[in-house]
Design goal:
With 217 residues, this protein is α+β, with helices and mostly antiparallel strands. It has one domain. 53% of the residues lie in helices and 20% in strands.
């Protein structure tokens, strides 16, 4: 009797361990797939101000506007992220010139840098869209000592403009984003009221705190 009880108990423990491993591996696979695919389809802009002074923060926004204006002028007919990346790479010196000229035009003299690469981002919310933490391709612009608050948006698909009165993205921008992502990914970053999707998003946030679990090139 005791032997049967022990064998049954051991079987239950083994099954629980296997179930836990299955759930854990499934969660890791899900996080890796989502973070990798989001990273693959999104190109971001990251502008870091020299400091948190009012003047430096204002300059950050002027640089942002000039960069986005130029980006839109060369990428109006871009159909894929790869095309956008190539255009940015081919015109990186123009972006650098725009940033440096903007700094001079506004009475500042500090240095800047423009780098196209893959960077680690924390979870970010832009209007009514949230992107989980992870590694994303981005044009990163550092102004001066780059110790101030940063600003970011999505260059491709273009999500850099919002309706200021409602703090939401335009329907056209959402359609472009939805076209670039899978149905699951778009629901995950845009639906804040669904309990299941909120849990999945938090799961990605939790696991992506460790670089091992995030998409990285």
């Amino acid at each position: 009797m005791k032997k049967n009880f022990f064998n049954n108990f051991k079987t239950i423990i083994i099954l629980l361990i296997l179930l836990t491993l299955f759930v854990y591996i499934s969660a890791l696979s899900y996080v890796k797939y989502i973070s990798s695919d989001l990273s693959k389809n999104v190109l971001r802009l990251h502008v870091i101000a020299n400091s948190d002074s009012k003047e430096d923060q204002n300059l950050k926004y002027i640089v942002r506007d000039n960069i986005i204006e130029y980006m839109n002028s060369i990428c109006s007919n871009v159909k894929s992220k790869d095309e956008a990346l190539k255009l940015l790479s081919d015109n990186l010196h123009n972006f650098e010139n725009i940033v440096n000229q903007t700094i001079l035009d506004n009475g500042f003299s500090y240095n800047s840098s423009c780098e196209l690469g893959t960077f680690n981002f924390p979870t970010k919310t832009y209007a009514d869209i949230s992107f989980p933490a992870g590694h994303y391709d981005a044009l990163e612009i550092k102004l001066g000592s780059s110790q101030g608050q940063n600003w970011w948006c999505v260059l491709y698909p273009s999500l850099c403009f919002i309706d200021k009165s409602s703090a939401t993205l335009s329907e056209e921008s959402k359609e472009k984003l939805q076209y670039s992502l899978s149905n699951e990914e778009y629901k995950l970053i845009s639906n804040k009221n669904n309990v299941t999707l909120k849990f999945k998003f938090k799961l990605i946030e939790l696991l992506s705190k460790n670089d091992f679990f995030t998409a990285k090139k």
